[in-house]
């Protein structure tokens, strides 16, 4: 059946710079299927994918773990870091010793990082703060809280304003305590879409991988775009994109498995998530590698 007879596939794109390497060269008009891009904050994409309002998306790794029985993983795609990530930041108005038993404002845009913060506060630092959800605005968050968690471009912009707050990079804290990678986002496809529209999903997956590979071999277009659209210096963005890793191999999987384990131990996540790769991905992946050779 021609793909023209199908409704467009809806693709969720996180509206933060951290996914640019995977989306920059991705052109939905060049796919073998009709597709629409839905740009949102991670928390909105988590909800929309779960509800079936979108078909395939970059979502919080925590959200993947919560609904892993409904999704397949698109292999070798993630937003990960080994140590400093620069965009998952806790801004401290009070000393850390006070904040771990005080009040912490949490951005409503995240799922992975709010739970990573809880793991850090409660399991690593032995604290028990009160958490409060808040829109991602540092000044307003800190009016009534000892510390505030921001992610993505909200965190990046806030980190450039010299306010004198102490700042913890949660990727770095995680790495210091565990020695592991941290994976913040994964690419997931709903199982019913993958099963009913494999050709469309293959076309999307191959285009995402091709974009990632193009960005890895030349970061220049993304760096220039970031300077123009967001500001900051060339050296900032060079550092930012070189700390981020968009593959998902054994090392990143081990870090995520430990994060899921801790999340379950603290009662933040039910059940045992499985990282089930889309069964058709291997064929798509090896065809792509051959094309690239
Ligand atoms: C590295 C980042 O990774 C992200 C963090 C997420 C989360 O905390 O749920 C989700 C997707 C990514 O945007 C970032 O936002 O800066």
Structure description:
Its EC number is 4.2.1.151. GO terms for molecular function: hydro-lyase activity. It comes from Cohnella faecalis. It is an enzyme of class 4 (lyase). InterPro entries: Menaquinone_biosynth (IPR003773), MqnA (IPR030868). By secondary structure, this protein is α/β, with parallel strands linked by helices. It has two domains: 3-80 and 182-292, Periplasmic binding protein-like II (D-Maltodextrin-Binding Protein, domain 2), CATH 3.40.190.10; 88-178, 3-Layer(aba) Sandwich (D-Maltodextrin-Binding Protein, domain 2). Helices cover 46% and strands 22% of the residues. It contains 14 helices and eleven strands. The chain has helices spanning 20-23, 42-51, 61-66, 96-99, 112-124, 138-143, 152-160, 170-178, 191-196, 198-217, 220-229, 234-243, 250-265, 281-292, and strands at 9-14, 35-40, 56-60, 71-81, 88-92, 103-107, 130-134, 147-151, 166-169, 182-190, 244-245. The protein has a six-stranded mixed beta sheet. Strands 7-6-8-5-9 form a five-stranded mixed beta sheet. Helix 5 packs across helix 8 and helix 11 (220-229) packs across helix 12. The radius of gyration is 19 Å and the shape is globular. The ligand C=C(O[C@@H]1C=C(C(=O)O)C=C[C@H]1O)C(=O)O binds at residues 14, 16, 18, 42, 60, 79, 85, 87-88, 110-113, 151-152, 184-185.
